[in-house]
């Protein structure tokens, strides 16, 4: 009986998510907003009618969806594009997150009476851009060949995938410093900081190495469906390894994107078919990703910290936007295209939903305040970013002849 209830709710959630997305699209808003609102209403914060069995596997479902969309993102990046976006993508992965995280740390000492360490814990929960919002939007732009003359969606994809590593690593570092202070254990800050670039380099190397080994046996697999299943299982395997062994030096999401990038190069004749199959997986995966992200949002926690939270977010997002503009200095992007990049780097959702409650669970003073402001950041920036991206696509140019010659079929 339990199994039937689970299957019924699971299928029903997918149908309702699809319909809620269509309703929101009808009023000219991004469909993901409808899916997130549905999840929030059905979840623990309001109606609380979702079976615990679905809530328990929600992290795994979200992981599968993120793995899918990041692999598709990797397939959408060519070698020629990576050469042109390399420097700004690297800067986008570091500067905005560092600017925002440390700004929130400083503001927290003023508005919340936190120590700088407490503020940094909050700052680097919030500092991560949301892959759940940004990456699907960028893939949609790639699919419609928007901004391809300067590979803007690809640049944002690469930057965002590494941005999370910076933010999560620093969040873990400052949380460790706080906890060690009260447990009489020493913390090697220098080692933790050095681990950040090492984690990025190692994750890229792992993705490249796995793709090279994979191409050796993928050529013996017959049929595009089986090749797609093989590469998808490899992607899931990398994610499971990181999650199971809690590897701080390995960002599987970045490795998966790199894996997709090299698979496109190694399996040029099969890449188009693989992409079609992966898009079919994503068509259903996004229904659950955004509705489950919505379930993790508890707007009732915001309460008394709404005004202070808005003030902190206003200044921190302004500084983050400045970081994006600094990262784009020296590029050939127009002012309108730079403005689009600023908007695309605003949304928060996935990391904040997953990490908001961790300080409170670990007994950090002010943990309930951190949770409230982290949730507020999702409520404010997820719709702001999603609507901003959708309504400002016209700032990007459409496909050109050079891009068509570069990859006439993959996208």
* Class per helix and strand makeup: mainly alpha
Q: How many discrete domains?
A: 1
What is the N-to-C succession of helices and strands?
Answer: HHHHHHHHHHHHHHHHHH
Backbone CA Rg: 21 Å
Separation of the first and last Cα atoms = 44 Å
Average pLDDT reading = 86
What is the CATH topology? Na+/H+ antiporter like fold
| Reported CATH architecture | Up-down Bundle
The stretches of 5 or more residues where confidence is low (pLDDT under 50) are 400-411
- Mind telling me the CATH class? Mainly Alpha
The count of β-strands is: 0
Summarize the structure.
With 411 residues, this protein is mainly α.
What features would you describe in this structure?
The chain has 411 residues and is mainly α. It contains 18 helices and no strands. It starts with a helix and ends in a 5-residue tail after the last helix.
